[in-house]
Write a structure and sequence with these properties.
By secondary structure, the protein is α/β, with parallel strands linked by helices. The chain is built from 27 helices and 24 strands. The chain has an eight-stranded parallel β-sheet. The protein starts with a strand and ends with a helix. The protein binds glutamine (GLN) and zinc ion. The site of glutamine has 15 residues, from loops.
């Protein structure tokens, strides 16, 4: 018999029940007991789904009100002292305080869902996913003790429902690795000896609850690990193996590579590997598996929404079983938390597209079908195999997926299609003559406040209550308003303000061929925040201009330069579910051509400055350094293809936020944008030192206004930041702008801050 399990299930609920309950609780509309009830109902439902799919265990430990790393901070008793919790603050309130900060401090979000709050724990992306975890804080005085019953209560909750439980934990090394040292010169790895006894306590408690298997996640084994971290694994797991519980060491998001031998040698009863991201590692691990170990093969994609090819999965499983017999388990590649919950919620999606997809529930059913086929023959799961084959063949031949013209255009693309006609210096002088901007020109990043009125108009339009003409008229009024404000403020390079855009990727995806949008394809980004990424299912092309009319209208209102505003190909790729039947690089180049067409059309329409936002370039970096160059090559080429269809006199800007550039500066410079705007105000211009040391050749606008805070920066503060910038960047290359777009801000603070920003630029000019 084949054992099947999942590393985790999405907790948010197929109708985002958890999100809505959380938000009601935070607004004081429901009490804690009601919130807890929603949570336990969801857990019960999700366990039942696992059982109905034929899984041998239900997974407990994947539920969190806000974040599973935060659960561990509480389980392991290492809540940072700075929160000053006393014995009277209950666990749930502490959970939300650490996640959301102190209520009086405003937090805002932008840029793909980051939140910033000075008192909350820092948030960062979970490996290369769009899920954000809360970062544990460590100091030399961090202590650990088993401090929460939540996990054990949930184990009992599942057992009371008659389920066999596998508990899931974040492993001790991954937990420490993902944390951050809060004092200089301290090494968090030195906390391991203090931490392990608490893990032993946790395992003992689980054993006492008759939990036979504990999944212990060490995804850092798919990273390039420093030697001391690698060396820490064996002694740590020697200690944990004394617990007497069976450990399933879970790795995912990539190949083990140089950590494979280590992972195989650890004294755990099982090892899970990712056979979707790294199918090439499967055969080697099978061959090297110690005789007493179980191998869990992740063969269903936990990171994407495509229906699996069950024949391929079955073939791999059969090969593994031929060598390992019952020592093979099957699972999704990683936790299903990174895919939406249930395809049955997609009632409006066309049947063909729907037949190509699988959300979490469907993925578990796929797993169940493979188990049935392994144990009883394919005929016993015929319907599932038939559907899988039908989907594979219709995707392979569908004219919706394959557009020969797009493939041809890409194949015919000249090698220098990613190069501007002249080099930067030449372009710069042509552009200077053309625009005749003052020194320290001022601009903004694109969006202006997305007011209630704007959102209401869009919602009414989508509901069919506002006609297209009325909607366009309303957006034009907003654009005119934003333009007039900028003129009054004395900004040099204007923007139209992006009133008509819901989201910087969705707006473009909705207008491009090859994209589809789900109704309910929500994935948790952080806390109660979910995103609904577009689905790129086919060859991408641009049937008609996407932004030209808006830009033209905005330009018609002023003689000052109006900056066209586009999202770049890498960011569009990065924030979507991407087709898996061709390399991501190829899909990215197709998007690049579509954006290039838009750039050229903007130029033809008289727009002289065009910004192509790429905030996601850095987060697209592969987990392993060895894969960086290949990525940066195609990502850079895609950006340049989008930017290089124009004449020298057209100025291309790009914008990036939340990026640490130090290790990718050559690639950023190679984008060859005429100007780049970046986030620097919160780091007090520290980012810029790297640009200075590198002698970054092109123009640059270091953000002087932290748009994540409602505070209005003073003129003096911005002058100070600009002077600091001028120490490392030649003054004649400096622009003056905020850190990021202003869509999350209100008009009052925006106007005040921009007035000060313009005044600061004038001080510098003087
Ligand atoms: N142009 C976008 C804006 O201003 C850029 C957003 C981003 O950097 N994520 O909102
Ligand atoms: Zn930004």
């Amino acid at each position: 018999m084949t054992t099947i399990h999942t590393l985790g299930f999405p907790r948010i609920g197929k109708h985002r029940e958890l999100k809505f309950a959380l938000e009601k609780f935070w607004h004081g509309e429901i009490d804690a007991a009601t919130l807890e009830k929603t949570a336990s109902d969801l857990r019960a439902l999700h366990w039942q789904i696992q059982r109905d799919a034929g899984l041998d265990f239900v997974t407990v430990g994947d539920f969190a009100f806000y974040d599973q790393t935060l659960n561990h901070i509480q389980l392991l008793g290492c809540e940072p002292a700075r929160f000053g919790f006393d014995a009277n603050t209950n666990e749930l309130d502490r959970h939300f305080t650490m996640a959301r900060g102190i209520a009086s401090e405003a937090t805002t979000t932008c840029c793909g869902g980051h939140a910033h709050g000075s008192a909350a724990l820092e948030m960062t992306k979970w490996f290369d996913t769009n899920y954000h975890y809360l970062v544990p804080e460590f100091t030399a005085s961090t202590n650990f003790s088993l401090s929460s019953d939540r996990l054990f209560n949930q184990v009992q909750e599942a057992q009371a429902l008659g389920h066999t439980v596998k508990a899931a934990l974040i492993g001790p090394l991954t937990f420490l690795y993902l944390g951050k040292e809060k004092i200089e010169g301290f090494n968090r790895l030195s906390l391991l000896d203090k931490l392990l006894p608490v893990y032993a306590d946790v395992l003992a408690r689980l054993k006492a609850l008759n939990v036979e298997w504990v999944q212990i996640d060490e995804p850092i084994l798919a990273l390039d690990l420093p030697a001391e971290w690698k060396a820490a694994f064996t002694p740590a797991y020697n200690k944990l193996s004394a617990s007497g519980t069976k450990l399933m060491l879970a790795t995912y998001f990539g190949a083990l590579l140089d950590n494979q031998e280590l992972a195989l040698s650890l004294p755990t009863a099982g090892l899970h590997i990712d056979g979707v991201r790294a199918p090439e590692q499967v055969a080697g691990v099978i061959n090297a598996l110690p005789a007493d170990k179980i191998l869990s093969l992740g063969l269903i994609d936990g990171r994407n929404i495509w229906r699996a090819n069950l024949d391929t999965v079955l073939a791999t499983a059969n090969e593994a079983r031929a060598k390992l017999a019952d020592r093979v388990w099957l699972a999704p590649s990683c936790s299903l938390q990174h895919v939406p919950v249930d395809l049955s919620t997609e009632t409006k999606m066309d049947a063909e597209l729907r037949s190509w997809l699988a959300y979490a529930v469907q993925k578990l059913n796929e797993l169940g079908a493979v188990k049935t086929a392994l144990d009883h023959g394919v005929a016993a799961a015929q319907a599932a195999f038939d559907e899988s084959r039908a989907a594979a063949s219709s995707r392979a031949s569908s004219p919706r997926v394959h557009n020969p013209a797009v493939k041809q255009r890409l194949a015919d693309l000249p090698a220098d299609a990613d190069q501007r006609a002249s080099e930067f210096k030449t372009r710069q002088s042509i552009q200077r003559n053309r625009f005749n901007l003052p020194a320290f020109p001022t601009t903004t990043i694109g969006s202006f406040p997305q007011t209630k009125e704007i959102r209401a108009a869009r919602a009414a339009f989508k509901r069919g209550e506002l006609s297209a003409d009325d909607y366009v008229a309303a957006m034009k009024r907003e654009i005119a308003h934003a333009v007039q404000k900028q003129v009054d403020l004395g900004i040099d390079v204007l923007v139209h303000g992006e009133a008509e855009r819901n989201d910087m990727v969705e707006y473009f995806g909705e207008q491009l061929d090859g994209f589809a949008f789900s109704q309910n394809g929500w994935v948790q980004s952080y806390g109660s925040r979910c995103v609904k990424p577009p689905i790129i299912f086919g060859d991408v092309s641009r049937p008609h201009p996407m932004t030209v009319e808006w830009a033209q209208y905005a330009q018609s209102l002023t003689s000052l330069p109006m900056k066209g505003m586009l999202t770049g190909p890498v960011t569009i790729l990065q924030w979507s579910f991407v087709r898996n039947d061709q390399p991501r690089s190829e899909t990215c180049l197709q998007i690049a051509l579509a954006i290039r067409d838009e750039v050229v059309d903007l130029e033809k329409a008289g727009i002289g400055i065009i910004q192509i936002d790429e905030p996601a370039i850095r987060e697209g970096l592969p987990l392993r350094r060895g894969d960086w160059d290949a990525y940066l090559d195609w990502a850079g080429r895609a950006f340049r293809i989008s930017a290089s269809g124009v004449e020298d006199q057209t100025q291309i800007h790009t914008h990036m936020c939340y990026s640490e550039f130090n290790d990718i500066l050559p690639a950023i410079a190679a984008l060859d944008a005429d100007a780049i705007t970046i986030e620097t105000s919160r780091s007090d211009m520290e980012l810029l030192t790297a640009f200075g040391n590198f002698n970054y050749p092109n123009e640059i606008g270091p953000g002087v206004y932290d748009i994540h805070s409602p505070n209005v920066p003073t003129v003096d503060e911005m002058v100070r930041l600009l002077k600091k910038a001028a120490e490392v960047i030649p003054a004649e290359n400096l622009w003056v702008n905020p850190d990021c777009g202003l869509k999350t801000r209100g008009w009052t603070e925006t106007e005040a801050a921009l007035a000060n920003m313009v005044a600061a630029a004038k001080v510098l000019r003087g």
